[in-house]
Amino acid sequence: MISGGLLRAALGELLPGAKMCACKKTTGISVKAEQEEQDKQGAAGGLDADSAHLLSVLASNIRLFRGQRGMTRKNLAEQSGVSLPHLARMESSQGNVSVVVLGKVARALNQSVASMFAESGPLSGDLGLIVEFLRQQPAEQLARIREQLFTEFQRAESARGKRIALIGLRGAGKSTVGKALAERLGRPFIELNEQIEREAGISVQEIITLYGQAGYRKLEKRCLEELAIANPEVVLATGGGIVVEAQTYQLLLSSFYTVWLRADPEVHFRRVMEQRDARIATPGHYREAMDNIRNTLAAREHLGQMAALTVDTTPLTVDQVVEKIIAAPGVLEGGGGGGLPPGSWL
Questions:
Q1: What is the pTM of this model?
Q2: Among 210, 227, 258, 330, which one is most buried in terms of CB atoms within 10 A?
Q3: What are 103-126's pLDDT values in tens digits?
Q4: What are the φ/ψ torsions at residue 147 (nearest 5 degrees)?
């Protein structure tokens, strides 16, 4: 268990009031010091620390992109249609920047609006070319490209197959199937959220309340990394939202044989109701709950399809789901006893 001080150190810059991440390594210590000074100025001007830091990142990126293109501030003003005084304020982390003005500046710099707030620095030459190449590929080619990259550069397939991870929305059957699968294969079963709670010494809800989603997701990634190293053979049940965190999901896909458990929306609702979990489903808000489940399933469909195996648990018993997983190519069977009695339902 991590003490309060160590938890804060582990979360680092993700604590409320702190910076989101380190400044651009490529622009040197002077830029970092300059951003820190701008953060202090913003805080002194009445902004909360997170807002002040956001403006300082924007200011730094505008200067960086402008410098890369050899543009003076006057050139940028002419090409963007934004006045010189307004640009001066933006580059000094002052003022409230509207989305319209930000869009004009981004277009003049040939950047996306999102890149104006990027804190990881400009892409290297090779990475920039690779990203641009991928952007130009048709959607149907991207899955094949990803599989080839993972096969070529990630862990051996045999090692990955001994670690099985179950993904899916709440109510898909991850915990129930995971326990039965682990027993069948003679491997330990771990709930990722329980591991996070043990690591932090507080509940998931308390982590989110104290440190926000960003703090929780950082701990999630850290715990996943530790589990992959410490457990050569394991069955892991993940949180439903892990698929929307790109870095964490990439780590999961490359380190575990990943199985997407899915079900019909009505089945999700029924199972969540049986768990007495009011976060998604309550009898008094059936329509709202069903809309939320359908929308979430639709939004994560393309992410679930990236898993090595998909199993629709709607019509199946626990043992039938386990058999489908064990029979799939890439899953290495181990020893151990049988699962739940035949005919048992999720």
A1: 0.66
A2: 258
A3: 999 999 988 898 898 876 556 567
A4: -60, -40
